[in-house]
């Protein structure tokens, strides 16, 4: 079997933690090039993974090399549209880390270009493949939830200034929506379909860093499901970090906690013993993964599934759920929310 040649563009944290381990674990992939304009980031990756591959510090020389079948883009989100467009124009299949672009119009432009060239183009909305979310999908498909009526997501993270400097200027990065909230909003679209309207958006700005760091919003979907999101990247406005996803149905409700990972279905009064059993299962499973040194591979499993699926799509064709054209409903929702955030129009 001929190996699929992949070049990785961008050697920052997401490439080191997720993309490169997944690519190297795929037996059908040959890594044939790395590119980063930061020589230190490039050398860090080469040394950590002991990669005897071609190295580039210039994006255009990287894309002109012709050494790849696939370009895997792991650069900051604000650069994704231009880089993906150039890679597609040169005849490469493209897998781009989320977001595929910072607008639905640009995402559609990329999808049209990929179709015109007969190329594969997908993005990495990996939260669809988290173990806990797959449990929600399974419960829905089995009819255990009944009809979903409301989805409530909460994500409280540390201050945005602790993230990459590429994200600090929200006028360029649109960080809170397109880099952080995108995952939970995409899960809502995956569960509930396209949205019909954004009912309200309450953005809160941190004047000290001139950035929107806290948003509460409500969305109505075409299926009459109400979606609620409370997202904060400002540790001055809360005292703990966590991510919860609650799905309320007419038959049962699903409760997910991202860390320590937990999934629970409930109907009627929450029985204390069942809650206790779930906590014991959650911590025992996490401890076993850590002790057996499987935690990092387990944590990266969603990226592994996306990357393996994309490589298979490139080889065999068919459909792929994270093709950029397929995630346009998510991009449309992000755009409608972004219109309510003054800092994004600077």
Write a structural description:
This protein has 346 residues and is α/β, with parallel strands linked by helices. The chain has helices spanning 13-25, 39-49, 59-64, 80-89, 104-117, 131-141, 170-173, 175-192, 272-291, 295-299, 301-316, 328-338; strands at 4-9, 29-35, 54-56, 70-73, 93-97, 121-124, 148-157, 195-206, 211-221, 226-233, 242-249, 253-257, 262-266. The strands form two sheets. A seven-stranded mixed beta sheet has the order 8-9-10-7-11-12-13. Helix 1 (13-25) crosses helix 11, helix 4 (80-89) packs parallel to helix 5 (104-117) and helix 8 (175-192) crosses helix 12.
- What is the tally of helical segments? 12
CATH class of the largest domain reads: Alpha Beta
H/E element order: EHEHEHEHEHEHEHHEEEEEEHHHH
Write down the overall geometry.
globular
Please state roughly what percent of the residues sit in beta strands, choosing from under 5%, 5-15%, 15-25%, 25-35%, 35-45% or over 45%: 25-35%
Mind describing the biggest β-sheet?
7 strands, mixed
CATH topology term of the largest domain:
Dihydrodipicolinate Reductase, domain 2
For CATH, the homologous superfamily of the largest domain is named as Dihydrodipicolinate Reductase, domain 2
Tally the structural domains.
2
